Request: fold
Amino acid sequence: MNPVSVRDIPLSRPDFDARESAAVAEVLASGWVTQGPKVAQFEELVARRVGAAFAVATTSCTTALHLAMRLAGIGPGDEVICPSFSFVATANAIRYAGATPVFADIDAETWNLDAADALTRVTARTKAVMPVHQIGLPADLDAFEPFKRRGITVIEDAACAIGTAYKGRPIGGSGNIACFSFHPRKVLSTGEGGMLTTDDAAMAARARQLRSHGASVSDHARHGATKIVSEEYRELGYNYRMTDVQAAIGIVQMSRLDDLVAARQRIARRYDEALAGCPVQVPARPPHAERVYQSYAIRLLPECSLDRDKLVESLMEAGIACRRGIAPIHVEPLYRQEQPLTLPVTEAVSARSIFLPMYPSLAEGDQARIIDTLQRLLGHSSSKELHPRQL
Ligand SMILES: *Cc1c(COP(=O)(O)O)cnc(C)c1O
Reply:
């Protein structure tokens, strides 16, 4: 049982204040609440920030990924290589297009898609490969160049990666299609929301049509016209429109992005330092990548005798929300194959990793409590005095 005096610490928390509230109020008062001027402004800000020629807002990263599949011409009979070590949405988007996800293993250090393993899974039907910038660490994009040389499209699942960079270039600005998420557990949030970025004008135009039932003219464009504008529907589209209410929140969040990322990086450094002497693997920091720590995950090393699930439960009993690490997609009932697939690194990392609380407003005192509790459970004697509850 939690002692009453101890506050529960959440796993994650979006960071909104009076500025977001005021922006929402302004949209409600304006009378234009869906995909209008605020969405256009938000798209402009994201495109400029990530260095892409175009940004197309959607209802989520999942729907942006679905549009990406359509833009890449992926359909039934096609295969798309992706990590199993990801949120299920990564694979679901492939299935929405009628294609088959082919799971490849991850790198043990970075937990990102292992390009070499992915290459061994290429077949005549492979249309695309989907590196995921998992929990905010950019994938090694250069390692995916061999796919492009074979005519395979690279689509980046950048759900967790707004504000980060690969070899100095912002994620989203590589020339590939990249898809971002603005879910509350991500670095920047609009409640729900997503964004697709591309340098290809024709793809951006088609994405804008597909997100609004395939209409040849947008509501926003029709609104500005002085004559009758008739739209046509030439292909099957969707309703993946972001609201102006969400975009108004996003515009404010973009102005705060650097601060939100810096706060996450400060918290990550404190975890890194505190856990240096513990039998855990802390998040990798490869030289090619900045990282935004959408989450902070550790992995219990073989020399740590603790049971992972028991550790998670002990932390939860201490009022500290935490979660087991990313669950592999290939063992979910929906994705289990007749010939069982084995992905050794994915399975090893998943079985022994946990997410710790990570959000910009995590107070230093709360983080100290998390660290003390974790160090005690990991059997590491802290240099600080013992908390009375530990005696
Ligand atoms: C969160 C997440 C998604 C889905 O994002 P939504 O905006 O919730 O659809 C997809 N891929 C990865 C890697 C994610 O972490």
Notes: The chain has twelve helices and 13 strands. The first strand starts at residue 54 and ends at 58.
